[in-house]
Amino acid sequence: MRPAARIKSIQSRIAGSFVMLVLFTALLLIFISYPLSESAVRETAENYTSELINQVNANIETYITGMKDMSLAAMNNPNVREYLVAGGELEPEELAKLKRKISDYFHAILVSRKDIASIHIFGYNGTFISDRMDAELNPNILPQDQDWYLQAQAHKGQAVISSSHVQPVVKDEYRWVVSLSRELSGADPDKGIGVLLIDLNFKVINDMLSKLDLGNRGYVFVIDKEGRIVYHPQQQLLYSNLKTEQLEQVLQDTQGGFVVNEDGGSRIYSIKDTDFGWKIVGVFYENELVDNKRQMQRSFAIAGMLCLGVGVLLSFLLSRNLTRPIKRLQETMAEVEKGNFDIRVPVGHSKEISSLARSFNVMVLKVKELMNQIVVEQEVKRKSELNALQAQINPHFLYNTLDSIIWMAESKKHDEVILMTSALARLFRASLSKGREMIPIATEIEHITSYLSIQQMRYQDKIRFTLDVDPSLYPYVTLKVLLQPLVENAIYHGIKNKQGPGSIAISGELKGDRIMLRVADDGIGMDSDKLSKLLTAPGKGRSKTSVGIANVHQRIQLYFGPDYGLSYESEPGAGTTVTVTIPALRAEELAGREEIPS
Amino acid sequence: MRSPIRMRYVLLAAVAAVVFGVAVHQLIGGGRQEPPKIVVAVKALDEIEFWRVLIDGVHTASREFNAEVSVIGPPKEVDVDRQIELIEAAIPDKPDAIVMAASDYHRLVPVAQKIHRAGIPLIMIDSAVQGNYAKALIATDNFDAGQKAGKELAALLPPKAQVAIVSYVQGASTQIEREQGVRSILNGRAGTEIVGTYFSEGMEERAYEITMRLLKERPDLDGIVGLNEPSTVGAGRAIRELGLTGQVKLVGFDSSIKEVKLLEEGVIQSIIVQKPFNIGYLGVKTALSVLEGDKVPDKVYTDSVVIHKSNMYTEENQKLLFPFVEE
C-alpha cells in the first residue's frame, strides 16, 4: 500500500483517533493531577514539619518546666534559706550538717531526673552547695563571671534559661548543659542571697533533635531569644561559614515560617516559639520535594507512556478488528472485479458489516445471473444475425439459378428447365427444414446434392462433382446449409478461374466423437496469407462467399463450441481442402439441446 | 477466526502483566538512584578526639548529600601497617570514591597508586602523600597555623627572647609546615633566638622530659611552641611543675581537656585549634563534587583558630574546644 493510501485507510484513521484520544486524556489527567499531587506533597511536608516541631517544643517545655519546678522547690527549701541567710552565724559543725542535708535533698531530686546534670547554689556569703558533696569548684574559673550568674542577678528572682554551653565551674567537668539560674532572695525581697543553678544535660536535647527525620537533609535547630544557637546539627559549619542560617529572619518571624531562596534551591523554615523564649525551627529543602517531584514526574511520565502504549496497541487491535471484515469485503470485491462471481464474503459478527456482506453476496449473485442472461441473449442475437446473413445467400443463388432457368427456357430446353426447377425446389425444401437450424446430415446431403445438380447444369463440363458420404452418417445432425457456402467458394474461387475443367469432392467420415465433412477442389488454391484471413471475421471489400465462409465457421463455434469449426488446407495451384468438424450428435440426443428455435 | 481471538487475549494479558509489573516496580521504588559509596580512611578511629570530630563531619556530610559512607581506620594513629591493610582491602570493593588521611607521607604512596590505578577518585584529607594521585587535598593550612602560633608567642615575648620548639615526629609534613610557619614569624622578629627544635615522637611523656631538661639547661628561656597536643601538654606540665607558669610563655596546637585546663591555669597562653569537623565534611563533599564531574580545587585549606583563656568560652570556640560528638 502506498503511504498516502495507508494514512487514508479506515484502520489508520481509527487508530489515529484512538491514539489522539488516549494522548489527550492522559495529558489532561497528568495536567490536572500532577499539580494536585505536588501541592499535596508540599502540604504534607509542611504539616509534618510543624507537627514535628510542636512535639519537640512539648518535650523541651517538659524539661524546662521540670527545671523551673525544681528551682522553686529548691528556693523554698527552708534549709537552703537558713544556710544562705544565717550561714555566717552558725557553728561550723551545724553548717556542715545543713550543707549535707541540702546536698542529699538535691541528690535525691537528681536521681529521679536523668535529664538534670547538676544543681548548685552559690551563696553571696561565699558558700557553695552541690548535689554532690565531693564537687569542687574550678579554681581557675569565677562563677561570678559566668553569663548565667550575671543574668540571674539581672533578672531579680526570675528564672533565666541560658543557651547551650560548656559548664566549666566544677573542677574537671566540662559538660554541655543548658542552665536555669535564678537569684534567691532573703527576707528583704530586693536583696539577693545567692544564685541557684540547675544544669540540664544537653545530651537529652541533642539526642532528641538529632534523631528527627526531615528528609535526608532537613533538620531542626533551636535558638534562644538573643539569636544564639542552642542546638544546631551543623553548628560547626555555621561557625566556619560553610553554611549560613537565616538567624535574623528567624528571630523576626511571627508568621510561623518562611521560605528562603538560594542558588541551590529553597529552604523552607517552619518556626515555633516557646514559652521561655527559644525558637524551634524546622528546615526542609525544597530540593527534596523536587526529588519527590522528579520521581513523581517520572512516575507520571511512565504512566503516561504506558497509557499511550496500551492505547496504541488497543487501538491497533481494535481498528484491525473493525476493519478486517471491510478489508475482506474489499478483497472479495477485487476478486469479483477480476471476474470471479462464484466467490462469497463470509458474513461477519457485527450487524452493519454482516448486512453489508449479505447485500454484497446477493448483489454478486444477481450480477452473475444478469451476466449469464446477457451472454445467452447475445448468443441469440448473434444467431439471428447470422441467420439473417445466411438468408441473404439464398436470394443471390436463387437469382443466378432463375437466370439459368430463364436462359434454358428461352432455348426451349424443357427437360433441363424441369430438372433444374425441381432441384431448386428440393434445395429450398432442404434449406427450410421446417425452420429448424439443426438438420440430419441426410437432409444436408439432399440439399447439397440439389445445389450441385443445379451448378452442374449451369457449368456443364467445366465442373465434376463426386459425393462420397457414408450413409451411416445420415442420422447425425448438422447445422443446415453448411456445405453450400463451401462448395460455392470452391467453385467461384477455386475452379472458375482455372484453365480447363475442375473437380470437387465431398466426403464425410466419423472420427471418434467427431464428424468430419470435407470439400476438396483441385482449383487454383490459395497462399497462406489469404488462407489465414479466410476464417476471421469478414472485413470490408470481401466477397460474399468469404462472408459466408466466416459465417459458417462462427456458426459452428457458436453452436458447438470453440473445439469445432472449419479448417483449410491449400496450396497455390494444387487446390484447396476445407474440413468441417462438428460433434457426432444424433437427432434424438439433440432434443432439448437446441435452445433457439429458428 | 478462533486463533486470532486467542492471540488477542494473549496479547492483552501480556500488556496487563507489563503494566502491573511496572506499577509494582514503581511503587517499591526501583527507579530510585543508588547513593554513591564512599570509603573514608582515617588515621585512627576513636583514640583521638580530633578524628572523632572529623568522622562526625563525615557523617554530617553523608547525611546532607545522601552518600553511603563507611569509615575505616586503625585504632591507633601509629598503626600505619593496619591502615595500609584496611585501605587495600577496600579497593577491590570498588567504592565510588576514597577519602584518605594518610598516616605516613611516604609509606602510603603505593596505596595511593593502587587507588589511582583502580580508577577510583582519591581525595586526601588532613595529610597527603608524596606524589600527585589525589583529586584534592583538604587540610589545615599548617604553615599558616604555624604563623599564627608564631605571632601569638611573639606578642608575649620580651624584646630579647629565647624560644624553643617542641615538635613531634621528625619528617612529618604537617610538623615541617607548622615549624616553618613559626620560624617565618620569629626569625623576622629582632632579638629573638630560636634555640632549637626538639622531637617528642608524639608522646606526652617525651615532651615533658625534653622540656624539663630544656628548662633546666636554659633558665633564660622565654617561650616554647608545642607543635601538637601531646607536645604542648608535655611542655605545659614541665613549666607548671617548675613553677614557671606565666614566666615561660607557651603556645600550643590542637585541643584537649588537658590543654584546656593548662589554658585556664595560665600555663598555656594560646592554642591553635584546627577544624577537624570541617575537614571531614569537606572531604566527603569534595568527593561527591568529583563524582558529579565538577571541577574541584586541588587544595582546600580549612581554617584554624587562635584560642586563649579570654575567648575559650565564646559560642564559637566552645564547640571547637569541647567537641560534642554524637555517640
From TrEMBL, chain A:
It is a multi-pass membrane protein. One of its GO terms (molecular function) is phosphorelay sensor kinase activity. It catalyses: ATP + protein L-histidine = ADP + protein N-phospho-L-histidine. Its EC number is 2.7.13.3. One of its GO terms (cellular component) is plasma membrane. The keyword Nucleotide-binding applies. Residues 320-372 form the HAMP domain. The keyword Coiled coil does not apply. CDD domains: HAMP, PDC1_HK_sensor, PDC2_MCP_like. Its main location: membrane. It holds the Pfam family HATPase_c. SUPFAM superfamilies: ATPase domain of HSP90 chaperone/DNA topoisomerase II/histidine kinase, HAMP domain-like. Residues 393-586 form the Histidine kinase domain. Keywords: ATP-binding, Cell membrane, Kinase, Membrane, Nucleotide-binding, Phosphoprotein, Transferase, Transmembrane, Transmembrane helix, Two-component regulatory system. It comes from the Bacteria. InterPro entries: dCache_1, HAMP_dom, HATPase_C_sf, HATPase_dom, His_kinase_dom, HptR, Sig_transdc_His_kin-like_C, Sig_transdc_His_kin_internal. It is an enzyme of class 2 (transferase). PROSITE patterns: HAMP, HIS_KIN. The chain crosses the membrane at residues 12-34, 300-318. It is found in: Cell membrane. PANTHER family: HISTIDINE KINASE-RELATED, TWO-COMPONENT SENSOR KINASE YESM. This is histidine kinase. It comes from Paenibacillus ihbetae.
